[in-house]
Design brief:
alpha+beta, PH-domain like, four-stranded antiparallel sheet, YdbS-like_PH, membrane
């Protein structure tokens, strides 16, 4: 019965999240708060960037090539080589299909929401968790291009910590001690970055605090671009 329930939740997420006050939000927005944007990761970008599907496919291509070369060196005929390669294809298709399915499930069950006061991340395939990130706890924000899309990285202040495994893959890679949430694999990352910059700027003006600064990136890694500043 449990397996059937989980399958229904995956195919029809409304059953799992019917307790939400609104899609992606665990409770109704309070007075004065409004939703600015809501979306999910792009499936193809998520598969390539978080699950490294390109590298997996490249590995299998090399494996097929090696199998063909060794078969030719052993004196096998073209038919025998093709038969050997064909025997490997089902496992290759199974592996790449599983990665693609996981990426689809991640994208389908993930909802990012930006309001004029906070960022909300609803993540999790089997067990959904919602993270509320008020602007007052966001020390810095930056975005980095990734292929035809991009990621938005958030650096949090305060003593509260979010476990890396609870956030993955919606966390900046290799930052384990001080986890940095990340709106990952966004096809329209520049537009969302501009919108978030505007919201942060207005919130800063209300609090009369210093402007946000770009998230510093490690040496040797692609530098995150600062969120575009609102005019």
């Amino acid at each position: 019965m449990r397996a059937v329930t989980n399958l229904v939740n995956v195919l029809a997420p409304a059953h799992e999240h019917e307790f939400e006050a609104a899609r992606g939000l665990p409770e109704a927005l309070p007075e004065g708060e409004r939703q600015l944007w809501q979306g999910s990761p792009d499936v193809r970008l998520l598969a390539r960037q978080a699950l490294h599907l390109d590298l997996v496919i490249g590995y299998f291509v090399l494996l097929l090539g090696w199998r063909a070369v060794t078969g030719w060196a052993d004196g096998q005929s073209a038919g025998q080589i093709l038969m050997g390669l064909g025997g490997m294809l089902p496992l290759i298709l199974l592996a790449t299909g599983l990665l693609g399915s996981i990426a689809w499930l991640m994208a389908r069950t993930t909802v990012y929401t930006v309001t004029n006061r906070r960022v909300v991340m609803r993540v999790g395939i089997v067990l959904s968790i919602s993270f509320n990130l008020p602007f007052s706890q966001i020390l810095s924000a930056g975005w980095r291009p990734r292929g035809r899309g991009g990621d938005i990285v958030l650096s949090l202040g305060g003593s509260d910590r979010i476990a890396y495994l609870h956030l993955w893959p919606h966390a900046r890679p290799w930052h384990l001690r001080r986890t940095q949430p990340m709106l990952r694999a966004l096809a329209d990352a520049p537009a969302i970055a501009a919108l978030l910059a505007q919201a942060l700027s207005e919130a800063q003006a209300d609090r009369q605090t210093l402007p946000q600064r770009a998230v510093p990136m490690d040496a040797g890694r692609p530098a995150a671009r600062p969120l575009p500043q609102a005019a």
